[in-house]
Design brief:
Largest interface: A-B, 47 and 44 residues
Oligomer: heterodimer
Shape of chain B: globular
Number of strands of chain A: 14
CATH superfamily of the largest domain in chain A: Response regulator
CATH class of chain B: Mainly Alpha
CATH architecture of chain B: Orthogonal Bundle
Membrane topology (chain B): Multi-pass membrane protein
Strand content of chain A: 15-25%
Pfam families (chain B): BPD_transp_2 (PF02653)
Radius of gyration of chain B: 19 Å
Helix content of chain B: over 70%
Order of helices and strands of chain A: HEHEHEHEEHEHEHEHEEHEEHEEH
Radius of gyration of chain A: 20 Å
CATH architecture of the largest domain in chain A: 3-Layer(aba) Sandwich
Shape of chain A: globular
InterPro entries (chain B): ABC_transp_permease (IPR001851)
Distance between the termini of chain A: 42 Å
Helix content of chain A: 25-40%
Protein name (chain B): ABC transporter permease
Subcellular location (chain B): Cell inner membrane
Structural class of chain B: mainly alpha
Number of domains of chain B: 1
Structural class of chain A: alpha/beta
Order of helices and strands of chain B: HHHHHHHHHHHH
Number of domains of chain A: 2
CATH topology of chain B: ABC transporter involved in vitamin B12 uptake, BtuC
Chain lengths: 356, 307
């Protein structure tokens, strides 16, 4: 394993210089959107990288570039990686989708895997977790614990991945509290702890008493803790940031998918596939639930969880209504993966509009 | 909208403005002495990392704050040595400092990611904190916010009515003249840069000990740069720096609140609000006086006593 730090520029240099010593191991590169120390999204990808790197030992050689801005900058980093002999490149943020597709066209022999997107190509597959399943369960806990019947959600960017999680959270909350409503604030960044905190404070000012977020830092947990409110975390177990506030976290574990993808490339059996693991495959789970939560709610959450794992329940099964009270998913049917990947409407009970 | 709501908005405004105010006051002082240090972001980050580590290891907030200020100062020594003693280009040196600080803070903080501490707790001043509207915002904050008020008042007084203020300005405007009058220009510039470093370190300590009590890489998220811009738009005046920081803080909070109320405005546009409001107000104030000619005249120019 090679550890690369400091800046994308230095990382590129390091990759360039190391390229000449290319040997047998499969070279696997990871492109991260935030620093590995963000305690959230990128942190979990990095944990997974370390796990597979350990498991495969000499068979692979991994490296990562962290804090790569989405857009043009990322395309340059991805291309440099491909150019310097990386065989398999994981690009781990939604905004890397088009740059990854473009780079893949120029480097047809390199295999690319993009997280959370919906575009594929001959040499581009994608993967993500069904984090909405864990979110749904966290939402059930949140709905039950809200006294004001207002949930607050801090979102990074209004993209399908985030909208899906928001909707799942709301649908979960409705299972335990039919009167629940939710306010959403977008902060336009994946990682800015202070701003995430400000957004959390604003939501609480407007009556929200259970918070959740789809950003990378645990700042909202701390905000809830400081104000005597509740919150649910994301990515990893965030209870350490607010022992009293933290109800549970919707967690992600990426290593199984990384292992499968890397193994496929090693075997020569790799094909562009869209892998989407959830609770069933252990890619998602929820953190231990706070002791304030009544036992019957915990039992109900456990019940829904086992139903989802068994395939007897789907988070997005009908009837689901949109904000205008018209039925979007009729009773007896459920949303397809293709629909989930393009989610651009709010379910009933969420306030405001999705910014276009 | 009741009074308590406005209380809370103003409270959040001051809290949001505090890191900006601390960095901007420090940057203003070093720029007033003629030194442009673009390394603010790096110094804030190193300050934040060390403040968190010190508070985590010793369990004492006091040590955390001191460590933050000291770390910021230590990093600024590096800048001062290269830019003042070796007379390197200040812009390049400052940029390098930011890159250096970003990496250094990530490196030393790596083992502390995911650790949690109990942050600085607010101390409400009896009676004063009950004043409607401003009471909570000004008198129910934590020690670092009070410290920022104190530093503001002190600097305002120094720049307005003391000999020391005059000397600092002379060094920034016309170092040759100051030198001819017998003032140690380089030494004064060193001190100004060190002061700026300590202020940036304090801002970092505020972020990692009070605002979001944790260490996470890149926790400053560009606040060092915003503060640098604030100084320019405040045309290097202490009271306008405060005004600018508060305006920026208020607009940041407003942008989030408006979204929560479901106003159908693009968050991208709303996100520009703090920058727009602050720039417009300060530029108008600048125009009304004597135009943009307020920058210290020797800003960014190296000085050598032998020339």
């Amino acid at each position: 394993m090679r550890r690369i730090r400091f800046s994308p520029l230095l990382a590129i240099l390091a990759i360039l210089f190391s390229a000449s010593s290319s040997a047998d191991p499969l070279k696997v590169g990871f492109v991260y959107v935030s620093p590995v120390g963000d305690a959230g999204w990128t942190y979990m990808h990095e944990q997974a990288r370390q796990i597979v790197s350990e498991e495969f030992g000499d068979q692979i050689e991994t490296a990562f570039v962290e804090g790569v801005a989405e857009g043009a900058d990322s395309e340059r980093v991805i291309r440099k990686m491909a150019k310097s002999g990386y065989d398999l490149i994981f690009t781990t943020s939604f905004g890397y989708m088009n740059p990854t597709i473009k780079a893949a066209k120029r480097f047809p022999k390199v295999t690319f895997e993009h997280a959370t997107g919906y575009k594929m190509a001959k040499n581009v597959g994608n993967y993500m977790t069904r984090d909405h399943e864990a979110r749904y369960l966290a939402g059930m806990v949140a709905g039950a614990m809200s006294k004001t019947d207002v949930l607050g959600f801090v979102g990074a960017f209004p993209i399908p991945e985030v909208v899906r999680g928001i909707n799942a959270y709301m649908l979960g909350a409705q299972q335990t509290n039919p009167d629940i409503t939710m306010k959403v604030i977008w902060v336009n960044t994946w990682h800015d702890p202070a701003r995430e905190r400000e957004a959390a404070e604003s939501l609480m000012l407007q009556g929200a008493d259970v918070l959740a977020m789809h950003t990378d830092s645990p700042a909202i947990i701390q905000a809830a803790e400081a104000n005597g409110k509740y919150a649910t975390g994301f990515n990893s177990d965030m209870s350490v940031y607010g022992p009293n506030a933290h109800l549970t976290s919707a967690m992600q574990h990426w290593h199984n998918m990384y292992r499968d993808k890397i193994q496929a490339v090693l075997d020569g059996s790799w094909k562009p596939t869209s892998v989407w693991h959830g609770l069933k495959q252990g890619a998602n789970d929820i953190a231990p639930i706070h002791s304030d939560v009544p036992d019957e709610i915990v039992a109900l959450v456990e019940q829904h969880k086992s139903q989802i794992v068994a395939g007897d329940r789907n988070v997005f099964q009908g009837p689901i209504y949109n904000q205008l009270n018209s039925i979007m998913v009729p009773e007896g049917s459920q949303m397809s993966d293709a629909e989930l990947l393009k989610f651009n409407w709010y379910v009933q009970g969420i306030e405001g509009k999705i910014p276009q | 909208m009741d009074i308590a709501f406005i209380d809370n908005v103003l409270f959040a405004t001051v809290r949001t403005a505090t890191p900006l105010l601390l960095v901007a006051l420090g940057a203003m002082m070093s720029e007033r002495a003629g030194v442009l240090n673009l390394g603010q972001e790096g110094m804030v980050l190193v300050g934040a990392a060390l403040a968190f580590i010190a508070a985590y290891v010793t369990g004492s907030m006091g040590w955390g704050v001191l460590a933050g200020a000291f770390a910021g100062m230590l990093v600024s020594v590096l800048f001062a040595f290269i830019a003042l003693s070796l007379m390197a280009n200040q812009v390049a040196t400052g940029l390098a400092l930011t890159i250096f600080g970003t990496g250094l803070s990530a490196f030393i903080g790596a083992d502390y990611v995911g650790q949690s501490i109990t942050g600085l707790s607010p101390i409400a001043i009896p009676l004063l904190s009950n004043i409607p509207l401003v009471g909570k915002a000004l008198f129910a904050q934590d020690l670092l916010v009070y410290l920022s008020f104190g530093l503001f008042a002190g600097l305002w007084w120094i720049m307005r009515s003391t000999r020391l203020g005059l000397i600092i300005r002379a060094v920034g405007e016309n170092p040759q003249a100051a030198h001819a009058l017998g003032y140690p220009v380089i030494k004064i510039r060193y001190l100004a840069v060190l002061f700026g470093g300590a202020m940036a370190g304090l801002a970092g300590a505020y972020l990692s000990l009070s605002y979001t009590p944790m260490w996470s890489e890149g926790i400053a998220a560009g606040r060092g740069w915003i503060a640098l811009a604030l100084v320019v738009f405040a045309s290097w005046r202490t009271q306008r720096v405060l005004l600018g920081a508060w305006l920026f803080g208020f607009a940041s909070i407003l942008h989030l609140l408006l979204q929560g109320y479901g106003y159908d405005i693009s968050p991208n546009l709303l996100g520009m609000l703090p920058y727009l409001v602050t720039i417009i107000v300060l530029v108008i104030m600048m125009r009304r006086k004597q135009g943009i000619g307020d920058a210290p005249r020797s800003l960014g120019r190296p000085f050598s006593p032998s020339r």
